[in-house]
Amino acid sequence: LADVDELTTIKRELNYRISLQSAKLLRLLKQKDRLVQKVQKNCDIVTACLQAVSQKRWVDTKLKFTLEPSLGQNGFQQWHDALKAVARLPTGIPKEWRRKVWLTLADQYLHSIAIDWDKTMRFTFNERSNPDDDSMGIQIVKDLHRTGCSSYCGQEAEQDRVVLKRVLLAYARWNKSVGYCQGFNILAALILEVMEGNEGDALKIMIYLIDKVLPDSYFVNNLRALSVDMAVFRDLLRMKLPELSQHLDTLQRAANRESGGGYEPPLTNVFTMQWFLTLFATCLPNHTVLKIWDSVFFEGSEIILRVALAIWAKLGEQIECCETADEFYSTMGKLTQEMLEDSLIDSNELMQTVYTMAQFPFPQLAELREKYTYNITPFPAAVKSTSFSGRLGRTRDSDEENDFDDEDSIANAIGCLGPLSGFLAPELQKYQKQMKGKSD
Amino acid sequence: MAQTVTSGTSPEGPRPSYMYKVVLLGSMSVGKSSLAYRYVRNDFRELLPTVGCSFFTQTLDLDEAVVKFEIWDTAGQEKYQSVCHLYYRDAQAALLVYDIANKQTFSRAKLWLEELEKRFLPSEIVIALVGNKTDLAAEREVTTEEGEEFAQTKGLLFMETSAKSNHQVNDVFMAVVQELLRREKEKASKPSPHGRSTVNLSASGARTRCC
To answer: What does the entry list under GO cellular component (chain A) (predicted)?
Structure first.
């Protein structure tokens, strides 16, 4: 047993230390308060700035910027509106915020569909393999080293590739109707980079992006919604950039004539399809791509169409100099390289064009999407006949093409062929003659 | 067959010039894009998977003709077929590519052939079966004989290549050109259509030049 003196000394010592810690704690608390106040003040400044640059509409006066959604019913909406306004600023969302911002959006979505995330994690990242995994896994593995992100190449990147594979497989397990689609590896690699390698967070973003933000069935089996958007895009191009669109149509028609009645697909297709499928990740430098994605997350999938329009507008001048389809393709080969190397498109300028080209939501977009999704007769006025085109699908099916397996794919094929009416027109006329001949 | 016939000019006098559309078909990751890249740029690198389609052009200045190739490269994943089939309509030639180190891709190439046979008459398209990745000989799953035999029974051109080590890549495209040109000549002399005959690959010694 220690004697009383010793205990007293210990007690005094302890008291001293406690008082030191208390003082420190108090200091820190005061500091915290000051910082909280400072954050609040800065948030207020941001709010003021956002309101100052806003269009001064009634809704803009209610903008209130917070770093995280505050509690309460309108907390998320308030945060969302303010961050959306930040994303629209020339500087965009600061890269330091990006991870948290994306996750907040994804979490809100997962919350809204009442997902038990822990359970989902256990299922999707399960070590045991599922019956469907094999074929999916093989496809995924083939693309793992082909992401365009240097961090996934080479020996030392083994661990990164393992994580990428787990995320892709997890998404395929989560959404079986989509599974794996070539190009996902490119999306997931960039998402993982933003999520600092956290696989669960990356999966959340994949789910939010593919299931919620992009049009329904964008990546499902026959890429139906993608075909619809490509058709829609050609209409938008015609509306917004009539001269360029006309020029391209002329080149396409000339190419068709030159190849002796052959078929040249719409010239923009090959590029636009890639842009849409990889959300520009293979055509623009990463910092620009991330800005676009921020915007897609806040404004929705119409941003993709807007960006594509802005890019074609930017390239327009050089394309209008092309005199043949061949020349167009070689020019585009050069321009796509320049775009990727960041020497052609300024991201601020691009985004400003994107935001200012039309009001939100894009006028007529919803109607166009609906038209190409449900209306299987998107033919030009010259050969317009609703009841007639339905039959056309079947005629094509029976006589010359065997590529339409079921009703759905007929609708799809016709839907996506819609804007290619230039190429269909001769066939339609042939058919019309046939029908006329019969009725006579 | 669809092509442009105009008079090219050269020191030796006017030569016909042709434009041909070639499509690359085959499973995922068999090296379709790499073959095109090697052929057009003479380089090999880790390429991104083809999403949708991409294309290359190559002009060959041959003794007998000027040939412009429009090479359409398609995504290997089956999902993409619905958006890619537009691109192989009207092709004059197709390379059916498989990976010699992956038996499954060989079977898939056979399915691709069936698909092509549905769309084209034999006289309409020149088809070459291409066993790529001979650099992976140690992991070979499809023997040269297997490929050769299948090509022979179906009347296809056949060659094994490596885009990585630049083995016979140029040759396979040359063989296709030779066959296309042979058919042009045949067509010019006899207007009636006829079946395909095999071409002697070793005879493809024409000089080529990129423009």
So the answer is: endoplasmic reticulum
**Residue-wise pLDDT tens digits, B138-182:** 999 999 999 999 999 999 999 999 999 999 999 999 999 999 999
Same domain, A289 and A420: yes
Position B84: which residue type?
A: C
Integer Cα distance of A116 and A302 in angstroms: 30
How confident is the model over B3-37, as pLDDT tens digits?
A: 444 444 445 567 888 889 899 999 999 999 999 99
Range of the domain at A308: 224-439
Where do runs of H (alpha helix) occur along A279-374?
286-299, 302-320, 325-340, 347-356, 365-374
Q: With beta carbons less than 8 A apart as the criterion, state whether B53 and B84 touch.
A: yes
Return the domain boundaries, chain B.
Answer: 17-188
Q: Are residues A123 and A251 in the same domain?
A: no
The tally of domains found in chain A comes to: 3
Residue in B48, B73, B121 to test binding to A, most A beta-carbons within 10 Å:
B48
Q: Do A326 and B68 touch (CB under 8 A)?
A: yes
Predicted complex: ipTM over 0.90: no
CATH 1.20.1440.60 fits B17-188, yes or no: no
When CB atoms are compared, the residue of B3, B28, B90 closest to A263 is B90
Domain assignment present for residue A33? The answer is no
Question: Which comes out higher in pLDDT, residue A203 or A89?
Answer: A203
Q: Identify the CA nearest to B27 among candidates B107, B137, B87.
A: B107
